[in-house]
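REQUEST FORM: STRUCTURE PREDICTION
Request ID: SP-0412
Submitted by: Lab K.M.
Chain count: 1
Length (residues): 664
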Amino acid sequence: MAEVTVAKTAGFCFGVDRAVKLAYEAAERYDNVLTLGELIHNPDVVKDLENRGVRVIDDLTGVRASDTVIIRSHGVGPDIYSELLEIGARVIDATCPYVKKIHEIVKKHSEAGDVILIAGDPTHPEVKGIVGYAKKDCFVFENADDMVKLIRKIYENIKKPIAILSQTTYNISKWENCKRLAEGIDGVTVYDTVCAATSRRQSEAEELSRHSDVMIIVGGCNSSNTRKLYEICKANTRCILVENADGLGGTDFSHIRSAGISAGASTPAYIIKEVQKTMTEILTKEEEFNFEEAIEQTFKKIYTGKRVSGIVTAVNPTEVIVDIGTKQTGYIPQSELSGDPSAKPSDIVSVGDEIDVIVTKINDVEGIVYLSKKQVDAQKGYDEIKAAAETNATVTGVVTNVIKGGVIAVVSGMRVFIPASQTGVRADAGLEELLKKTVNLKIIELNEQRRRAVGSIRKVAAEERAAKRAAFFETAEVGQTVVGEVKSITDYGVFVDVGGVDGLVRKADLTWARIRHPSDVVSVGDHIEVTIKDIDKETGKVSLVYKKQSENPWDIFKNNYELGQVVEAKIVSITGFGAFAQIIPGIDGLIHISQIADQRVNNVADFLSVGDVVKAKITECDFEKKRVSLSIRALLAGNDEPAEAEDEAEEAAEEAAPEEESAE
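STATUS: Completed
RESULT:
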């Protein structure tokens, strides 16, 4: 049966995947998005981004402060950052973390006065960016012979220490040769900077090419790492370079029984799948039954520890049956299916799935082979986790167990321990709330010998919050209305999360009504609409207002009431010099002791009680001082004038009126 095998690490590496995601996010958020050079060396992706408004520029000529400029994964020299800073444009730095690491190495050695040697293509944008971090004495070489010549020349003329490193996508076999020659020379420091993903991609492609009748390399024709894959594989077998599935048309694949597929770091997964599908269809049409091959497959040799591929033929509650192309029947016990002990076999695989497994035990007497999918997944998971630890990438897992001191999450088939302090769960809450949940985490510790990893959910949350905080201060403006969540309540106000930032709504800005405590208005967890009152970007403090201007009781009172109007008011408090009565919520008028009755009043409580509703006449409105005076006496027969001096009443009102809530 003709086989089409795709190398496991074919396609996007972490750095390219990150750059592409940042570009698509920028296209959604901003206008005038530019990439300094093609984002990645893949015409399909570049064309799709162009359709979304992301334009490619070759230099910064014409860039304005209103533009958003993406630094691609290849990185740039420090002079570009300086120029962008001077222009004032928004910068999205998509430089690959591996490339950033090289920048730091070159900068450190250059500042120390060392000579820098870089293995790579001097015309490649990544190499140009790296060279930009060297002050002087920096040389680029393409092979080991050139490197040796440079070292001799440096020792003879410059006589300085030497630091040697490589472009991240440099040919791994050439690099191994360079390292072998350089590591034994005094005064030479060698940094292994070939990207781990590049190394795996090249090694897997070379291995696959040794067992394939043809190798299909998928990627942009101007992609450096794609061309290197092509050069490596064509040394072992027939090799074809295509940008997409259309490139397979017109090629003679007759008599081909096995095809391998690998792809450059800039090739999207969907293009690889299209090439795989097209290649499978081509070989299926060409395939003829081979009796000798069928006999050979019957006697296919297997052994304990061997990794094989198989097709799922049955899924039972406790096991899965797999056809691995031998005379024996393959069985995967439930315990060897997944790192999640609670997962059902039917949740993991289905009949017809092609899966990779490891042989754990052979019983020739009964014709049974015991297999493990979990071990294969664990190896894949370990590789992913190791890469994530090296690049500080976020991974996703499912919490399967709550144990002493933390929880266990299964990430790509591998168990990761998350200490309680790194879960983000409050100390007074139970970790059980995380059970069965999908979580995002960072790998903060990795023991390669024991293959154990420690993760942190809290670190992801902190980074997400920091990103939200930065976005908030970038876009927020005074007067803007936002929705936030009440996080905590104090005596003096309420803290509201408005997107990575906790803004303060002071007690006086909560409501127009008089309240005893902010908890009378809102509760923790409420989602409320607030207006930004003030922003201090230097201190990170944000002031918010919850009360609505349209609900200002003084505006309502001014629009609906006038001097001399008779109103019904409710007595809300009694003092020694009179009583306060609520006209509308938020507006209390003072009924001075002299205005309560048409006789002398010695004790207000003898005439009025809290809760009484009385009719009174508005005798004074001072909107500047926010004072209202009322009179019951003015409504009594024959008493049109106050019995006491107006000055006395005004003085008492000012002295006794409730103080406004402090804004501090």
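NOTES: The chain has a mean pLDDT of 86.
Reviewed by: T.R.
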